[in-house]
Amino acid sequence: MGARSMLPAMPATNAAAELLDPHVAAGRGDRIAYHDDRGSLTYAGLRERAHRAGNALRALGLEMEQRVAMAMLDTVDFPAVFLGAIRAGIVPVPLNTLLPAADYTYLLGDSRARALVVSAALLEKLAPAIAASPFLRHVVVAGDGGGRPRLDDLLAAAAPELEAAPTSADDVAFWLYSSGSTGKPKGAMHLHAHLGHTARLYGQGVLGMTQDDVVFSAAKLFFAYGLGNALTFPLSVGATAVLMAERATPATVMRVLRARRPTIFCGVPTLYAAMLADPAVGPEGTALRVSVSAGEALPRHVGEAWRRRFGTDILDGIGSTEMLHIFLSNHHGDVRYGTSGRPVAGYEMKIIGDDGQPVADGEEGSLWVRGPSAAIGYWNQRERSLQTFHGPWTRTGDRYVRDADGYYTYSGRADDMMKVGGQWVSPFEVESALSAHEAVLEAAVAGHPDADGLTKPKAFLVLKDPARASEALAEELKAFVKERLAPFKYPRWIEFVRELPKTATGKIQRFRLRG
Fold it and tell me: pLDDT by residue (tens digit) across 387-396?
C-alpha cells in the first residue's frame, strides 16, 4: 500500500457562495441586487435564480470542471448563469458579444464548451459557430428560443436550492478570453479566490464601495473590467448594480445616470471623450460621487474636462484580463491626470528595460505586475503562457515610466512603439497631444515609412465636426503638437477618417494602421 499523502486538504471555497450567501443569511435578501431593462431583482431572488441555473446546468449533464459558454447581453440572466455555474463547480466562459460571427467558431472550439447559453438577440449570429462546434451538446436561449430550450423554462423546472460544489480557492472558477487585438484570443483561467481579492483590494480598497452605492458600468459583463464593476464589487458589499443590454452611447449613458442615479460610473476613455463632446451631457439630475476609467489610458485633458463639468473625478487606472481588474490606479484625493496613479494595495510593480534589468525612475520600460488575482495561465497555449507569466510576475505588454513620487505614466503598448531618428516614440503620447486640440474627437498614431523608407509618425483623426477636415487644419494640428512635444515626435502626415479600427472592447488597433 502506498504512503498516504501528508498534504493538508484545501479548505472549501466557492466564489458564488461567498458573494451571495452572507447577504441572505444576514437578513438582507430583500435589498436590490440588480436593475436591468426589464425590472429589478433582490439578493434573495438572485441567489435563488443562480441556484436554479446551477441545477439546470447539472440537469443537462454538465459536471464539475466542464465549461459552459455564455454569449449573453447585460441582463440579470448573466449573473444568474455565471454564479450558478460557479456554485455547481462548472466553469463559465463569458464570450464577447460584439465579435464578428466567424470568431465564435474559434471560441467554441477552443473552449470545448459542452453547453452554450445565448441571448436570443445573438442566436442568429452564433448559428454558424453552433453548427460547426464538435463539442457542444446543448444550446439554451435566454429569451425566445426559436425552438431551442429556453432558459426561463429550465430555471422554472430546476430546484431552488443548490449545495455549493466542494471547490477550493485554487480551483479554476471561470475563464475570460483576451480581446485578441494582436492575435487569436487567449483563454485566461481564473480561480475561485480571485473574485474576492479584486473586490477587497480595488472595489473596497480604492473605490470605497459600500452597500449604499449604486453602480453603473458601461463596460459590459463579458469584459474583465465590467465583470468586476457590475458583478463582483457590488455583490461583495450588498450594493446595487444597473445593467443595460444596449450599446453605451452618450445618450444611453445619460439616460441611466439620470433615471437610476448611480453613485459610481465606470467607463472607458473613448466614451468619456464622446460624452464631453456632447453639449447635452451634464451633471443635472445625476448623483455621481466618482467615475472610473480603464481599458486604455485616459488623456489628461479628458479627466480635467470631466472634473470641470461634473465636479467629481475620474479615477483612471490600468488592469488586464490576465490580472482580472485594475492593479494600478489613481485614488480618492490623490488624482494626477495624465498618469495611471500608483499601485493598488496588494499589487507590486516593476519596470524592466530592454536589457532585462529594472530601470531607474524617469526611464521607460516594460511594466510587470504581481498580485493575488493573476490568472494561472492561458488554456491550451503553453508558449503564450510562458511569454506572459513568469513565476509570480505577469508581463503586461505595456510601456511605462515611474516618476520619483511613485506615479506611473503610460507610454503605449510595447508592440505599438516606433523608433524615429533613433529615438523611441510612444503613439499614445502623440495621440494625447492631438486629442487636446478642440477640433479632435479621437486620434490614433502609427508608424509609416517616408520616401527613404524610414519610419515616421502618421496620425489618423476623427473630428468632432467632419466638415472641418482640410489641409489647413492638418498643418495647424502639426504645429499644435510641435508646441507640446519634442519636434521629432510630431506626425508627418495627418489623415482624417470617420472612425478608427478598434477591438470590441474599444481599444484602438494601431497595427491595422501601420504602413
Answer: 999 999 999 9
